[in-house]
Amino acid sequence: MIQNPFTSTVKSQMPANDIVESSEAFVEIRRKDHFQKLWDYYMQDAEEIEAYLIAAMKKTFKTNTIEKMQLPKRLFVHKIIHRLALAYKYSAYRYLDEEAQDDKYQEMIEGSNIQMKAKEWNRLAKLLDTVYVVPVFRDEHIEYEIIPPHLITVKESEENFLIPESVTIPIAHGPNDMRYDYWTKDEHYALDSNGRRISDPENPDGKNPYGLLHYIPCRLKDTEDHWGEGDTNLVEANEMANILLASTYFNAIMGSHGQPIAINMNLDPKNPPTLGPDSIIAAENVDKDMYPPSFDYAKSGSDIAAALAMVDYIAKTAAMDRGIPPSSFSIDTDIQSGYAKEIDNLELMENRQDDIEALRVFERKLFYATIAVWNYHQPGKKIDPNSTFGVDFEDPSMPKTTDEELKQKEFDYKWGISSPVEEVVDTDSGIDEVKAEEIIRKNLELTQSISRSKTPEQLREPQQDDEDGI
């Protein structure tokens, strides 16, 4: 994983004053470190998360104590973010109003990975506030790449700090050779590790062939600067829960052994006695006026159950603060009706609608960037960039319980909205409406025949299997 690959902007764009240049570089390093941590927690990078955890625990525990501790981790950032990002729960439908252009557009979209990547940019925008999406032409089709904030450096537009004027992306050219891709709406060229331009025989003028900057920022809300803060509180909550979990495990382990306490045993702290039922700890030269020597274990009084409950509380509170019902984090929740689920998820649905409005604007910008890339590489299949673009988001429906589904069917049958015949029709199995009606009549006759052959008492008795299991 690349960490902090680009710590200063292009030299020609930096102020001449060395102090200011160093300050801007330091701010950029700090920014990328911040978003790297959020990214690592979302990706559940165990090695990086443990390093963050140890650094945070040093505020409370001594280093030699931490070295003795097990570091169990509960990771809920990923789950909460996935629960929040609902805009693309079902694949969005993108289209052009002009039929001829739409046919070509649908062919292009079907060959891309946009449906999969849309879920990802929705989730990362929830976590990071700002994430960049770029259409790339690869192997005769369009692919979308997502670039998190710690892997991109942006120079903001002077007119609007939310709009990029240039972007710089790190590219590993070799084991010890890091290079960078530099883009503006007019320029495109590579830079070496010192920020110097690398000549390209295929593009000696360093022109951007697309005529626009096709790196598009995706945001779901307004931010105070170009990047925003990201959901720092969620990651900090996860870290606090893990500190408490590590402390609880340590107390449980050490508390089960107890703390040895020796009184007037004249033991050498540098050479403690060997403990165990097969070892003897002897008290020598005991004087009758001395306080009697003793060796015992003191038990820990820590409340393990309360500490674990606090870990669970932190996770549930983090979810609830973001509109997620607590039942999402409960393992013993009763089955809810569809209506109850709708009430529980009302805030999530409202937030989803807000996200959709922001994503409509983003999708339109991404469309223009995609068409520019596509038309340059596929001149024989050009799509008119002036076409009217639209995107539809399907609303998710809450699943009904079995009882609710049964009542709905009874209502539909009663009022002629549907019939049992529709339930039986299966064209793949060769069952048409006529055949379905025959099956239903036969089943009803058989049921009535069985009912008539039994007394009311027999019908009320539970059925028991005979010896053959029938």
How many domains is the backbone divided into?
3
Helix and strand run: HHHHEHHEEEEEEEEHEEHHHEHHHH
Give the C-alpha Rg.
Answer: 33 Å
Shape: flat
- State the end-to-end distance: 62 Å
Question: Which segments are poorly predicted (pLDDT under 50) over 5 or more consecutive residues?
Answer: 1-20, 330-340, 466-470
Rounded mean pLDDT score: 82
**Portion of residues within helices:** 40-55%
Class by alpha and beta content = alpha+beta
- Order of strands across the widest beta sheet? 4-5-6-7-8
Largest sheet: 5 strands, antiparallel
Quick structural gist:
The protein has 470 residues and is α+β, with helices and mostly antiparallel strands. The chain contains 14 helices and twelve strands.
Structure description:
The two termini are 62 Å apart. Helix 7 packs antiparallel against helix 8 (304-320). The chain is built from 14 helices and twelve strands. It has helices at residues 18-43, 46-57, 63-66, 77-84, 99-110, 114-128, 232-257, 304-320, 338-344, 346-377, 402-414, 420-424, 433-452, 456-460, and strands at residues 93-96, 130-138, 141-147, 153-156, 164-174, 177-183, 188-191, 197-198, 216-219, 259-263, 294-298, 389-392. The strands form four sheets. Strands 4-5-6-7-8 form a five-stranded antiparallel beta sheet, with no helix packed on it. A three-stranded antiparallel beta sheet has the order 3-2-9. Strand 5 (164-174) and strand 6 form a beta hairpin. The radius of gyration is 33 Å and the shape is flat. It has three domains: 1-172 and 219-258 and 300-411, no CATH class; 259-298, no CATH class; 419-460. Residues 1-20, 330-340 and 466-470 have low confidence and may be disordered. It is of the alpha+beta class and 470 residues long.
